[in-house]
């Protein structure tokens, strides 16, 4: 602002009364602390409870420690072994009243360009390719119903199951969690035929289990270009698990005659 021509008189430096200032500060602090204590008593507040440490997790049972006669525990082990496997290759067939209605394979390999790849051929011969591509998401293409490679955004429940590793993993998880009338039948030698993509045949000593569970079955509708997912209530299953806890074959059939068989090849530890 412009000067008025009048300057304040110089009164000289003012010496602060430091003792008085200190006393005033201490009184103010005491009032604040007292007020906080009263507020806590009035509102019923309490000091936040210290967070408790999570209880220690029980060590997981290894295949060497597991008892195959404990069917529920051994099936849980098989589901865990598959989920923790760094790679796997699965081939499967679908059927109706014993007649094949479709077949396919799925694989998960850490060094592959895709996180998951799933091929399926319908009963009418339509070939469907499904992928989980890092950085892109779930994709698929089919000879009928889709015009080229299609990104599934947003994915349906069927897309999430059939185009990701959950196609292989979730079925065994659900079986281990929901199986009824579960029992160990005995020990059997199981020979798996050669799979696709150069997977060799192999023979395994296995434990065979039977029971029932709500089995999921995936499919594809060429008319709409959509994946489908159906749950078969009360499906009777046979599951073969080798001595290392690896699942080797799962077969099931619903009361209506719909069935599927999955062969688990080349599981890496």
UniProtKB/TrEMBL annotation:
<keyword id="KW-1133">Transmembrane helix</keyword>
<keyword id="KW-0812">Transmembrane</keyword>
<feature type="transmembrane region" description="Helical">
    <location>
        <begin position="18"/>
        <end position="39"/>
    </location>
</feature>
<protein>
    <submittedName>
        <fullName>Uncharacterized protein</fullName>
    </submittedName>
</protein>
<feature type="region of interest" description="Disordered">
    <location>
        <begin position="46"/>
        <end position="68"/>
    </location>
</feature>
<keyword id="KW-0472">Membrane</keyword>
């Amino acid at each position: 602002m412009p000067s008025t021509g009048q300057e304040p008189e110089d009164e000289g430096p003012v010496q602060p009364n430091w003792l008085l200032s200190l006393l005033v500060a201490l009184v103010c602090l005491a009032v604040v602390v007292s007020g906080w204590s009263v507020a806590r008593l009035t509102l019923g507040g309490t000091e936040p409870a210290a967070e408790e440490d999570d209880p220690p997790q029980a060590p997981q049972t290894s295949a060497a420690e597991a008892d195959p006669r404990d069917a529920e525990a051994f099936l849980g082990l098989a589901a865990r072994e598959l989920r923790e496997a760094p790679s796997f290759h699965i081939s499967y067939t679908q059927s109706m009243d014993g007649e094949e209605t479709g077949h396919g394979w799925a694989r998960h390999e850490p060094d592959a360009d895709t996180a998951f790849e799933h091929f399926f051929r319908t009963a009418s011969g339509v070939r469907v390719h499904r992928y989980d591509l890092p950085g892109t998401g779930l994709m698929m293409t089919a000879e009928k119903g889709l015009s080229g490679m299609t990104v599934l955004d947003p994915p349906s429940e069927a897309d999430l199951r059939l185009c990701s590793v959950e196609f292989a993993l979730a079925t065994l998880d659900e079986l281990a969690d929901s199986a009824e009338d579960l029992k160990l039948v005995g020990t059997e030698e199981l020979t798996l035929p050669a799979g696709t993509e150069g997977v060799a045949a192999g023979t395994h000593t296995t434990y065979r289990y039977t029971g029932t569970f709500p089995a999921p079955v995936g499919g594809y509708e060429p008319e709409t270009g959509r994946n489908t997912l159906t749950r078969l209530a009360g499906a009777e299953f046979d599951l073969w698990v080798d001595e290392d806890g690896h699942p080797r074959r799962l077969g099931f059939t619903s009361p209506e005659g719909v069935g599927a068989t999955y062969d688990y090849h080349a599981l890496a530890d």
